[in-house]
Amino acid sequence: MQELFDVQGRVVVVTGGSRGIGAMIAQGFLESGARVYITARKAEELQETRERLSAFGECVAIVSDLSTLAGVEAFAADLAERESGLDILVNNAGATWGAPVESFPEAGWDKTMNLNVKAPFFLTQRLLPLLRAAAGTGRRSRVINIGSVNGLAIDREMQNFAYSASKAAIHHLTRHLALELAESGINVNAIAPGLFPSQMTAYMLESGEDLGAHFPIHRVGNMEDAAGTAIFLSSRASEWMTGQVLALDGGALLQA
């Protein structure tokens, strides 16, 4: 039954792959024998991650700014020059912004929506030829959108209005794309993570409080959790599954 979760030899793209959940997922695919492209905006950080992850397999770094359509098109063109097909696209790159409702700025709203919703849609669109080409080999291609538990339930202590709205949007976009692309041999699913170590959550974890102790499963998420779920959604084990949003949160939503 081990072959049900085999992703060896697959070509994978992980956006926002230089840190946090993106780097965790990239490492998991590399350890499982996939060839992984990671992309992010900051060149130095991206190259440092590539060097670290290359210990686990073939990792290629491409610097790109996916918050603009020009950046999306440039990345898609670069990848098309390197690969004839793409098996797995993980739309992980994201942004957040916090401010009181009375003073929440348009710039914060636009930045969050552009990277969290617009970029995944247009990157998937521009990479459809490669995704369809890979699906033509007999294995369904996969798109995995990284949402959030904040797109499933409201945390009144967090004034991240654009972020929660954007994650609810990416969950619904996942369902829409899943229906649209099923005939093309492409499965589209989403992961809605809870609390994982990342730059976005550093301020929470640095408080010294054991935040994981509040969850039904008493810890925060780790690399195996993120990578294992992504590999499941990319493998034969989930071939008959599309349009789903999987909460990966240690049971936190049960208490919402």
Tell me about the biggest sheet?
7 strands, parallel
Order of helices and strands: EHEHEHEHHEHEHHE
Secondary-structure content class: alpha/beta
**DSSP strand content:** 5-15%
Number of domains: 1
What is the CATH topology classification name?
Rossmann fold
* Strand order in the sheet with the most strands: 3-2-1-4-5-6-7
How far apart the termini lie comes to 36 Å
> What is the residue-averaged pLDDT?
94
Indicate the percent of residues in helices: 40-55%
The CATH class is Alpha Beta
Uncertain segments? none
**What's the CATH architecture name?**
3-Layer(aba) Sandwich
Mass-distribution shape: globular
User: CATH superfamily assignment?
Assistant: NAD(P)-binding Rossmann-like Domain
Helix count, per DSSP?
8
Question: Top keywords for this entry?
Answer:
256 residues, Rossmann fold, 7-stranded parallel sheet, alpha/beta, globular, 7 strands, 40% helix
